[in-house]
């Protein structure tokens, strides 16, 4: 049987791990979204350059 203090310490570590993995997922989502916006911006810029060249 483990002591209450040891049990609380283990729970605290598990909660920290869960919070860390949640933050990592949020960071991945943010990086992915920034990449999508960058690609969309590049496509807009390229299509504008093509339109200018046609004129």
Gross morphology is: rod-shaped
Question: How many beta strands in the DSSP annotation?
Answer: 0
* Poorly predicted runs: none
Largest sheet: none
Based on CA atoms alone, the radius of gyration comes out at 24 Å
End-to-end distance, in Å?
80 Å
List the helices and strands in order.
Answer: H
Discrete helix count: 1
Share of helix, binned: over 70%
Structural class: mainly alpha
Beta-strand portion reads under 5%
Average pLDDT confidence is: 87
Describe the structure.
The structure is a single chain. By secondary structure, the chain is mostly helical. The protein contains one helix and no strands. The longest helix has 51 residues, at 4-54. The model has no long low-confidence stretch (mean pLDDT 87).
Which features would summarize this protein structure in a list?
mainly alpha, 55 residues
SSE inventory with pairings:
Blueprint: H1 4-54
Brief rundown of the structure:
By secondary structure, the protein is mainly alpha-helical. It contains 1 helix and no strands.
